[in-house]
Structure formats: C-alpha cells, structure tokens
Amino acid sequence: MDVSSLLDGLNDKQREAVGAPLSNMLVLAGAGSGKTRVLTHRIAWLMQVEQQSPYSILAVTFTNKAAAEMRERVENVVGSNMGRMWIGTFHGLAHRLLRTHYQDANLPQTFQIIDSDDQVRLIKRILKTLNLDEKQYPPRQAAHYINGKKDQGLRPKHIDAGGFPIEQNLLNIYKIYQESCDRAGLVDFAEILLRAHELWLNKPHLLAHYQERFKHILVDEFQDTNAIQYAWIRVLAGNSANVMIVGDDDQSIYGWRGAQIENLHKFLSDFPGAETIRLEQNYRSTANILNASNDLIANNPDRLGKKLWTEDKDGEPISVYCAFNEMDEARFIVGRIIDWQDKGGRLSDCAILYRSNAQSRVLEEAFLHKGLPYRIYGGLRFFERQEIKDAMGYMRLINNRDDDAAFERIVNTPTRGIGDRTVEIIRNTARQHQLTLWQACLRLLEEKVLAGRAANAVRNFIDLIITLKTDTEDMLLYRMTDSVIDRSGLRAMYEAEKGEKAQARIENLNELVTAARSFEMPEELEDMGELNAFLSHAALEAGEGQADEFTDAVQLMTLHSAKGLEFPMVFMSGVEEGIFPSKMALEEGDRLDEERRLCYVGMTRAMQKLYISYAESRRMYGREDYASPSRFIGEIPEKYVEQIRLRAQVSPSISQRFPSQASPSFGSGLGTSGPANSTGFTIGQKVKHFKFNEGIVTNFEGTGEKARIQVNFFDFGSKWLLVSLAKLEAC
Ligand code: ATP
Ligand code: MG
C-alpha cells in the first residue's frame, strides 16, 4: 500500500498526527473526532512508511473488543498478519508478561486470576479469622480499599495506618489477604498490573529487554489510566521509546476506580518534546447531537477546553420522553425500535444505554415479550454465570490444588456433607499453620482431627479431585470438561432441580463443553498447557463478545461500557435524578462532574438519532421511587430538543396537562396506551379519588374483583387501590 492511501480519509490535523516524525505525541480531542482512527493509521504508518517491525510496537486499548477491532483494522490497512504485534488491554498485556515470566514475578506457573466475587469470599474468610464484624468492615469496601492501594502501587509495607484503628484493621486485612493469595497462587485484577510494574522495577534485565524491543508505544483512551498503568508505561518507555497517547479529558469516567485525568498533564511534563495535536472536526454525530453535547459538557469546570464542529446537517432533534414508569419507558423504547426495524433498520444499529446494570431487567422483559433479539454487552456474561463458575472451580482445583478461591467455591457444591462447621475447621487450620485449604485438609485427615462423617466426606472430596485429575489428564480439553461436569455431580444437581432456570443452567454447562471444544490456544500461551490457558482465557475474556454474536440484535449496555463505540440510534434510559446522576454522586458532590462526563460520553455515541427517557416512578431493587428528570436534561438547550410526552389518544385531560407536547402522531409507534384491562381506565389517564384527589393512572394488575390500579396522586404520591372499592372517576 502506498503512502498516500494511508493518509486517505484523514483531515489535515489527523494527517499531521499520523505522519509526524518519530517522537512523543499527545492527541487531545473530543468525542468522535477520529482519535482511534488516527491511532490505527499511525500503527500502519509506522510499519509501512517508517519500516518498523510489528514486533517493535505495543498498542494499548480499553477493552478486548477494541483490541481485536484495532488488530483487524490495521491488518486491513497493511494487509498482513499482525501476530507478533502486542495489542491488548493493560490487563491483558500485563497478564501475558506475567505468564511468560512467572518465575521472575514470583508466581507459580499455574497461577490463576480471581474476580471480585472470589475476592469478596476470601475477604469474608479473613474477617472471620480476624474476628472483625462484616457490618463494620463490609467485604466489598475492604476489597475496594485493597484494590485502591494496589492501583496506587502500594503494598502493605508502604502504608502507614497513622494509628487509626479502622485503617489499621483494613491494612491487616490487606496483609492477610495478600498472604493467602500468594500461598494459593492467585492474583486479582489490580495485582496483575502491580506485579507487572514490579517486574520492571525488580528485574532490570527484563526491563532492558522490553525497552529494547518496544520502540513504539500507543495508548487509546489515555484519560482513564490509573497511577499504576501510567507508571508501567512510563518505566517501559524509558528514554528511548516514542509514545503516542490519545485521549479526551471530557470523557474521563473511571475516577471512581482510580483513573487520573492529571495523567494527561503529567505526560506532557514527563515525556520530553511531547507535542500536542488537537482534532476539532467531529465525524460521528449530527450537528444537533454534537452541539447539545458540547453545551452540556460546558457546565463542567476545569476543562482543557476543546471546540468541536461538524459539517453534518442538523439532523433530527433529540427526543426526550417522559414515561409514567419503567415499564412504560421500556415499551416506548421497544416501540421506536420496531419502527426503525420496519423502515429497514438493523437492530444492531440500536443501543440502549443505562447507568447501572440492574436497569436492564425491565428492558430485557420488554424485548422478550416482543420477541426482539437483544444482547447485553458487558453484563452478566457467560463465564460469570454460577454454574459455569462451579464447573470452572473444579477445573481450577484440578489444575492447581492450592487454589483456595476455587476450593471455597466447590468444596460443598453439590452438597456432600462438608458443612459450614467442617469448612470453618479447615479454614482455621489453614490460617494457624499458614497452609492452603487443600493442605489443611490433608493435615486434618492425617491427624484424624475431624469426626468420622466429616472426615469421610472430606476424604471423598479430596479423592474425587485426585482421581479426576489422573483420569482426565490425557483427555482432550472438551472431553475433560464434560467428564468434570458429570463426575463432580454438577449436572445431576441441576437435573434434580428441574424448572426453567435449572434447564438453562444445564444448557450453559453444555455450552461450556462447546466452548472448550472450540477453544484455540493463543500463540503466546502455547507453552502453558491447554487447561491452564483455557482457565485464563475464561477469566480474562469473561465472554466480552457473547455467544450469539452473529444474530442481529439490539445492544444493551451500561454507559461506561459504551465508551469508544458508536451507533446510528442511541437510547439513554433512566435519566433521572438519583439514577443519573447517581445517588452516590449526588451525596458526594465532587463526583457530579464525572457523571456529566458520562452523560457526554453517552450522548456522543449517537450518530443519527438520540432518545433520552426518564420515568416519573420507577420500581428498582424492589422499591418504588419517584424521581424528577435529571439535571442533565435541563442542561441541554431546548432548541435541540423535542419533548415527547403522553399520547393525545390516552385522554383529553392529559393533553391539558401537557398542552404543548401531546403528539397525536405518536400513538401508532407506541401502541402502549396501557395494557388491556377490565378497569375501564388506561395508563396515563387522569382520575379523581374521593380522598386522595387527583392523580394519574400508572399501572394495573389482576382482573375482575381482584383488579388493582396504581395511581400517582398529585398530593399523596403513588398508591395501589382495588378498583372495585376505589370509586375512581375519570376527570
Ligand atoms: P471517541 O472519543 O468516542 O473514542 P474517537 O475520537 O476515537 O471517538 P473515532 O471512533 O476514531 O473517534 O471516529 C469517529 C467516527 O468518525 C468513526 O466512524 C470514524 O470512522 C469517522 N472518521 C474519523 N475521521 C474521519 C475522516 N477524516 N473522514 C471521515 N470519517 C472519519
Ligand atoms: Mg476512540
């Protein structure tokens, strides 16, 4: 490919960045201005024009999906196999490094990654042995403390509790937690990064080797790097590598996880001669969407400040929909998507974004109801499901008997008579003698400490794992997986459970065998054994791309996981005070700016059409709440917005309440003027009660005598009433 075509499809500023002389560079620009495109083309440029080997390039992206996309895009541009180039996430690359140099990193070859659930389980165990109350030291908070310290590069020995008892206890938890992990050969996500950084610091010969190798380092989404990631890059780059980072301070959304926007400034002072290139043209969104986003983010203080413009036409206004409740909101969204599909649109071009994962359930129900395929991107993924983790627990223990997290998970799943008390004795023995749980079992059996039945049960469990290992050692991975699922008793357990849920779990277990069958050893992991590689793959990838990748499906995801992506049609749902901005952000105050950046990220995902919706009442986490529209909606100038409220067909009184917004044309698309019911009322209708006065009908349930109606009374809030007794009048 010749040079000119490498620069095709780029504007002047983008060309300047792609074709810059070898040096350090910061590309600072707003959403949709082509930062990722520049990064990709730069890699191609380095290879094609600067004649650099792919071997000398290290590219860091934010998700595995983005990494795969980048690899593909570069391959498209240069038309060759990029096998030897390191492209991945910080975690993926650091993990690869630890795998290769496990001895230098002081890890057993079979070390495994634990996720946040495993982490919490381990911490619970530690709290017990320390006699600390879970209420005073919630395990998740302790995990947050530990991860936070690791993200800052701090080991227990670096921390001074300053004589504060709570801090001292947290520090103790961290210390013992780390000792347990080390004994069991386990690393958590933060540990992967910390160890990879320590590898640089403690093993100069390794550092020298990689510094010699990686002459070009490129990082996307740099605004979301944390201290340890920054340090890792900084040390690796040394004084010789050329580092290109791209980022946008307005899209920094991981502050709560330790990301530091300041790293953008730090880069400029730490990397000599770094030049800043700004991109100002947006190629993604219509003018309405872009201008609205710009105006919203202008409410934040302390911005580096960027101007973004587009040649695109105004496009449609942003539609804001006020729903009665979360079900009405879901029906509205489904209605718009069906319209889109009827006009020939693809489902995968529609994305629904929400603030927290729990919001997806109602949407899922609505999609199931209409038979529309959907995919949850980054939600509860295949490898995170209970039954899969159970099966993997067995495989992990077969792989490494000292894996305490796996041991804890499966020791009594399915139940085999190893009760809580016995497990407690095992834990105490482990703690007392600095053993792993497996070793503690052996010791207890040898010393005949356990009572007869418990001892038998423990012996059977140990025997099971040992025979499973010997019997499956020479099997193909998928046969082994199948065998483990059978002989562990997991399949029988779920078969006995019956019901749809259990059936789904069995299907998932079967799918695991399929996954093992289609598992391909990544080249770089070839020396580590198939089982081990498969376990790492499961832990790392956690099924980012879901099983039915090839079906055209609506994409559901949190706002956080939408970063870097784009869709023709975007719905932002649940845009209510207390949800978005979140309650926590409202309470803590200083997090409001980050929520606004998240809103900016969400809005700028949209290419052609953006819907924003909120519900007046919402049932979530088993509670019903009333909310007002998010302040962010108010921050979007009205000229870019079209308010959609209730259908004119619902009742005349509704159009009285919102005279300017009632839109008759909306009736058909929604088709949701309340589910069919026998009460004679419809959702959205204004009614009058002899005691509670006026309100709006928001829901129904039951039929006949038992029919109940939910009314949101203007003065008394929401109430469920028996229709037969309530004597409601339409008004
Ligand atoms: P984000 O901040 O959201 O990550 P970004 O700055 O990385 O956005 P890209 O994803 O690289 O932006 O580009 C946004 C869209 O604009 C993509 O569809 C990309 O292909 C397109 N694009 C970028 N530059 C140009 C250009 N010069 N001409 C035409 N299209 C472009
Ligand atoms: Mg990008």
TrEMBL record:
Species, as recorded: Shewanella maritima
Recorded family membership: Belongs to the helicase family. UvrD subfamily.
Every UvrD-like helicase ATP-binding domain range: 8-286
Catalytic activity: ATP + H2O = ADP + phosphate + H(+); Couples ATP hydrolysis with the unwinding of duplex DNA by translocating in the 3'-5' direction
Signal peptide positions (record): none
Protein EC: 5.6.2.4
Source superkingdom: Bacteria
The name this protein goes by in its record: DNA 3'-5' helicase
Enzyme class, UniProt record, top EC level: isomerase
GO biological process: DNA replication; recombinational repair
Transmembrane stretches, start-end: none
InterPro entries to which the protein is assigned, alphabetical: DExx_box_DNA_helicase_dom_sf (IPR013986), DNA_helicase_ATP-dep_UvrD (IPR005753), DNA_helicase_UvrD-like_C (IPR014017), DNA_helicase_UvrD/REP (IPR000212), P-loop_NTPase (IPR027417), UvrD-like_ATP-bd (IPR014016)
NCBIfam families: PRK11773.1, uvrD
PANTHER family according to UniProt: ATP-DEPENDENT DNA HELICASE SRS2, UVRD / RECB / PCRA DNA HELICASE FAMILY MEMBER
PROSITE patterns named in the record: UVRD_HELICASE_ATP_BIND (PS51198), UVRD_HELICASE_CTER (PS51217)
Statement: the UniProt record of this protein carries the keyword Lipid biosynthesis: no
UvrD-like helicase C-terminal domain boundaries: 287-564
